[in-house]
Write a structure and sequence with these properties.
alpha+beta, Transferase(Phosphotransferase), domain 1, 2 domains, five-stranded antiparallel beta sheet, three-stranded antiparallel beta sheet, Kinase-like domain-containing protein, ATP binding, kinase, protein serine/threonine kinase activity
Length: 394
């Protein structure tokens, strides 16, 4: 009779598309990975090289050794791969490739290329992830590959100063306003869909699967500059649920969709509540960003909230409270959010902006060491007159 561990392993196998215990034990390719391996020669013809794991004839580096495949650079990624890293052959630039089923997500390609074309692509207020190239899949006209920059999570590495976090808030508010100004609602702008270009912060690069480590994986942690030293640009990604409208007068009405943040008041149902009604998606976008800041900077996430909590961001609370109002008519528009945030930003002293961001979970010794390093940088930045808020974006 199978044990609980056997059942959990079987469920994980199904999730990763793994067909046999042998594949799981020895780190073989999952079904989602074989798509990339089978089309690696075509992608190479298009000018993009995949890692050795996804090339025909790949031989596992741990065969005949005692190495753990999960600790090898060509080991299994442990996730469903609709998105994969690659290197653009002509200039060795790191990129990511996203597989899109245009039969189901036609607008993702349309909206992404819309913001990456013409004058919109060069607009400094545009924080939509750039589409560098669109590849039409040769075997299926419904499959498109979007080529985008290789990005990393917006909060990794952690923010060093309040000025860095303030720059982040400003960029993301600006990016949402830009989308709304062009009648596009993101409809899923939660923390999972906010990334940053860390290429300037990590001049020696980092491993695409384990971004805290060097490119050669387990030789050590990737070295990086702070955001103050090498300011990044933040991006809104994933337009699979986004909608574009001809006009916002009258406001468009849409039924709720299953997105990452399920706390939107318009979507909540109780036992005696009436059936859900169509809602304006633009105030919902404002809620998403407000709740992202509330969970990641003010209160912490619902689970393990103490460990996730950051100190000192109370100056954002009045704006966040309004952005997350239960009544969508009382939420500020994206334009109003940008205006109100500018007032908040201008009210903060240089001392506050240069202060270190502290987590509630910071332990004593690492926290003290981090504080010493911070003060060294702080004094140096003051002497060099480095701006308190990063201004030159990567």
């Amino acid at each position: 009779m199978p044990t609980e561990l056997d059942l959990r392993s079987a469920r994980l196998d199904r999730l990763l598309g793994i067909n046999s215990n042998q594949d799981r034990d020895f780190g073989g390719l999952s079904e989602s990975e074989t798509f990339w391996r089978d089309h690696q020669p075509w992608l190479e013809e298009c000018g993009y090289m995949l890692r050795p794991r996804y090339r025909p004839g790949w031989v596992r580096s741990w065969e005949g050794t005692n190495k753990d495949p999960w600790h090898c650079t060509d080991g299994p990624p442990g996730r469903f791969l609709l998105v994969l890293d690659a290197v653009r052959i002509r200039d060795k630039t790191d990129v990511c490739l996203k597989r899109i089923d245009t039969g189901k997500h036609k607008l993702e390609c349309e909206i992404g290329t819309f913001f990456s074309s013409g004058s919109l692509a060069d607009d400094p207020e545009n924080h939509c992830v750039p589409i560098l190239e669109t590849l039409q899949f040769p075997d299926d006209e419904k499959i498109t590959i979007l080529v985008m920059p290789l990005l990393r999570k917006y909060s990794d590495p952690r923010f060093d100063t309040f000025g860095e976090a303030v720059d982040f808030f400003g960029q993301i508010f600006e990016g949402l306003k830009f989308m709304h100004d062009h009648n596009v609602a993101h409809r899923d702008c939660n923390s999972n869909n906010i990334m940053m270009d860390g290429s300037k912060m990590f001049p020696e690069g980092y491993h695409p699967v384990k971004p805290k480590l060097k490119r050669d994986y387990y030789s050590g942690r990737a070295r990086f500059y702070t955001r103050t030293q090498r300011p990044p640009k933040y991006y809104l990604i994933d337009f699979g649920l986004s909608s574009r409208y001809q006009t916002r007068n009258p406001p468009p009405l849409e039924m709720g969709i299953e997105a990452g943040d399920k706390s939107v008041p318009e979507f909540q149902l109780s036992e005696n509540s009436p059936p859900p009604k169509p809602s304006d998606p633009f105030p919902i976008d404002v809620y998403y960003l407000g709740n992202m800041i509330r969970q990641n900077f003010l209160e912490g996430r619902p689970i393990f909230s103490y460990q996730n909590r950051l100190y000192g961001f109370e100056f954002m609370k009045p704006l966040v409270d309004d952005m997350t109002s239960n009544d969508p008519s009382k939420r500020p528009t994206a334009d109003e959010v940008v205006e109100r945030f500018a007032i908040i930003r201008d009210s903060l002293s240089s001392w506050k902006l240069r202060s270190r961001v502290i987590k509630a979970s910071d332990s004593l010794f690492p926290g003290a060491l981090r504080s010493v390093k911070h003060w060294y940088r702080r004094i140096r930045f003051i002497l060099l007159r480095v701006p308190t808020i990063p201004v030159k974006r990567a």
